[in-house]
Amino acid sequence: MKKLLFLLIWLPQLLIAQEIKSITSDEWNQLVDYLDQEQWEEASKTSFGYLNRLSKEEQELDQAAMLRYMYLLSQSGMMNDRKLSKDEAFKNVKEFKGKTLILPGHPLETKQGFNVIHPANNRADTLMITQSNHKATNILCFEYVILENKLSMAEFEMLKGKIGRVKGKLKSIHVHGNFLPRFQLFITKATMEVE
């Protein structure tokens, strides 16, 4: 059931991803499987390998933005599992600053929770996602999203329960936490597609 939900969250974006000819649908599926199974090392190697395969032109496509986020998430998972130091993980992703990321879809909720998009500080002008593992025992990223077209709380409440997908520029990235480290992302110039 978890895998089905995970695939549904990524599926609309993966269908678009077929524009990149150097990555087959079987390869995309394998990467999603690694992420779904929280096999962070395999997901990291695979997503990094795919990113390196892309041409300069393909680096600007949405698929590259998805791969960057997948790599970033897997780096955070490895850091959280103590397979990478905080310095190593940060060094591996710091070049993504200023680049576009596309996050997987998440349900929109008015209250804070794991793996949902919710208003930060009860205001819809900044959204937040607390990205965690499936069991919600490890926080992988705190993601703050500043939408280009602001939403009022009333507008956001009308979207509650729908799935939102965020695309935006990574303005900054930091490592937080000592015992269980994770990334803190600030994403600006963001748009949110709602289904």
From TrEMBL:
Keywords: Signal. It comes from Xanthocytophaga flava. This is DUF4919 domain-containing protein. Residues 1-17 form the signal peptide.
